[in-house]
Structure formats: structure tokens, C-alpha cells
Amino acid sequence: MQKHSLQSITILGSTGSIGVSTLDVVARHPDRYSVYALTAHSKVDALAEQCARFHPQVAVVGTAEAASALTALLKKAGLKTAVSYGPAALCDVSSAAGCDVVMAAIVGAAGLPSALAAAQAGKKILLANKEALVMSGQIFMDAIHESGATLLPIDSEHNAIFQCLPLDYARVPDSHGIHKILLTASGGPFLRRAVESLADVTPEEAVAHPNWSMGRKISVDSATMMNKGLEVIEAHWLFGAAADQIEVVIHPQSVIHSMVSYADGSVLAQLGNPDMRTPIAHALAYPERIASGVEPIDLAKIAELHFLRPDFQQFPCLKLAFDALRAGGSSAALLNAANEIAVEAFLDRKIGFRKINELIATVMAKIPSTSVKDLDALLEQDQRARDLANSLITS
User: Fold this and answer.
1) Strands (E), the chain
2) Residues 305, 299: Cα–Cα separation, whole Å
């Protein structure tokens, strides 16, 4: 058996679906990976179970109360894992000398500071938190380049695009003969539902994704197609593609995860079963390939693949994201902040499904986009958007 140097991993958001899938892949390759740190906001019992299995050096939770509860559980189990809490602790385990790889899987804007800390520390970053790039774009990419960090995309679509690009790709599409990046989208649970009936959508219907097992927030984003809109912005930063070089194609089967169209007429696609362990395993071992636990697809069983153009009337959030990308500045941060507040309000039954896009559009119209040079300025714009969105919901 070939010997590999052991890579030590911090998993930010280890009790979420991406975190659980990452640990599943890690467990299959104990000769390659060890766990440095695991983090969860409040799922103390689940985190304690993960600590018992993977023996991280550090575990991080969101609050002092959660830290106290976790410490008691670990002590009872006879584990020596150190416990800390709060946003600064997340940044510490992301940039620690004992950590080689960071899986950034905390959902939403909350995941930005720790992902940025990993970038500034020159880590190998597996980016599952698309909001980090959507919000901080240039700041994040500058940190990657200045520190020499490695950035590998985990979203199934961006990982697919990455696999379809030339090995020497350097974020300049035209110099590699790339015509377009084709982002596939499932269309979510309401693809064939009449537009006029969408006002009646319930949170339960919105989180019932037909293909993927995801958290509640990202499932709602998939239903509105804001998830795809955020991925369009993420693709711009990851691959240096302008808005006009990115096209969204609805592909209900979720078998083709994305494609790259070349100037010579070739279109390269990455196919696989809809299971996040595939992109996780690809990024963990890149440029090698390792077992992920995912079965290969049976093309004869699938038999047919379908494709549609997205309808902006049905999915206005997708158009809002393209608008934000073209506007530049802090527009994408405003879009993301307003969306997070709107989705939370919808899940709490404070607003209807179709109010999500209306709320985002109002926030973007009322707050002018500005140029942001650092994280503080960015977070200030983010907070302005959240405050306005919350006041619109209450009024």
C-alpha cells in the first residue's frame, strides 16, 4: 500500500450535511486524514459523538452554555478534546498551525470570517460556504493569492466545472478557449408549478427537494433558485468569468452537475449520482482520486436527460443575482444579507414565499452599492441590509 503524509483537517460546521459527508469520506481513509478540529453552533450531542469517534484536538461551539454542556459530555466520555466557543475560536482553528485543510461548511454570512482566516493563513480550503465568496469576492480572492492558499470548490456545480477545466487553468477564460460556463440547476420542487400558485407555498413544501438532501435554508434557496444565483456569483470569482460567460441550464435529473463550453464546439460535462461525497472526495485528494462511498451512475437506468431554460418570472431571485453581479461593489453582499433575513422570515411563517424576492429587490433598491475594500466595510453593508430587511418585515 502506498504511504501518504497525513493531512490534518478542521471541519467548520461538522454536524451539518456537508460536515457529516466529509467525516464519512475521512473515515474511509484513515491513512490519509486526521481530524484537527470540529465545530458546531449548538448541536452539542451530535458534536460530542463525532469527538468520540474522530478524537479532534479542539471542538468549537457557538456559546459559553454550549461549551459547558460539551465539556461535561466529553469529560464523561473520558475524551481530552479541548473546548472553545465563539467566532474568534472558529478563526483560531481555521488558521492554526496544526491544521492543513479547512472544510468551510458553515452556512451563510456567519461562515465568512473563519473561511477568510483560513485563506489568510495559506491553508488548503475546501469551500462549501458559497456566501463567503458571494459577499467578499475580491477581498477573499486577494487573501488567497497573497497567502498562497489553495482554494477548491465543494458545491457540486463548481466542483464539476473545476473538473472540466484544463489543469493549468488560471482564471482567464478567453486564454483557454472557454466559450461559456454552464451551471446546471435542478429547478427545485416548484419547477412545474404554476407561477400564480407560488404565493401559497408552505415552508414544508419548500424544503422538500426532489434530488438533494440539504439543510432548510439552502433548500429554500433551491426552491427560489437564489441558490443558483449565488452560484453564478461564486463562479465569477472562482473562474474569472463575466456574467455573460455564465449560463444557467435547468436539468431536473441532477446527473450532469455542470459543463464547460469551449470555442471549438466541445462541451465537457461531469456526471455522477447526486451525493456530496463525490466533490468532497475529489477536493480532499486533488489531484488524485479516492473512494467516496458513492455508487457510479447507471446510464441505462437513467435513460433520459432533460434540459430547460430558466424562467425569470418563475424564478425572479435568479435575475436579482445576475443584476447584483453586473452591478458589482457591495451589491452581492446586500443581496445575500437580504436573502438570509427573508428566508428565515419565510421559514418562521412571517412572510409568504413570493415575498422573499420582493423583500430582496426592495433592499437592493433602497441601499446604494458601494466599493468595499476591507471586511469591516463589507460587514457594515451586510448589517445595513439586514436591518432594513427586518424593518420591512415588521412593518
Assistant:
1) 7-12, 33-39, 58-61, 82-85, 101-104, 124-127, 150-153, 178-185, 246-250, 256-262, 267-271
2) 10
The region that residue 76 occupies, defined by phi over 0 for left and psi between -120 and 50 for alpha, beta otherwise, is alpha
3-state secondary structure of 389: helix
At 356, the amino acid letter reads I
Which residue, 86, 149, 148, is CA-closest to 115?
A: 149
Q: Distance of alpha carbon 291 from its chain centroid, rounded?
A: 22
* pLDDT tens-digit readout, 121-173: 999 999 998 888 999 999 999 999 999 999 999 999 999 999 999 988 877 78
Calpha distance 375→315 (Å, rounded): 31
CATH code given to domain 328-395: 1.10.1740.10
CB 114 within 8 A of CB 91: yes
Q: HEC states along 20-89? A: HHHHHHHHCCCCCEEEEEEECCCCHHHHHHHHHHHCCCEEEECCHHHHHHHHHHHHHCCCCCEEEECHHH
Query: Residue 308 has what DSSP assignment?
Result: B
Domain spans of the chain, in order of start: 7-153, 156-274+299-314, 328-395
Rounded to whole angstroms, how far apart are CA atoms 393 and 395?
A: 6
Closest CA to 190 of 171, 169, 175, 204: 204
Burial class (CB in 10 A: 0-12, 13-18, 19+), 245: middle
User: Tens digits of per-residue pLDDT, 50-62?
Assistant: 999 999 999 999 9
| Residue 124 near residue 132 (C-beta atoms within 8 A) | no
CATH dotted code for 7-153: 3.40.50.720
Q: Are 50 and 24 in contact (CB under 8 A)?
A: no
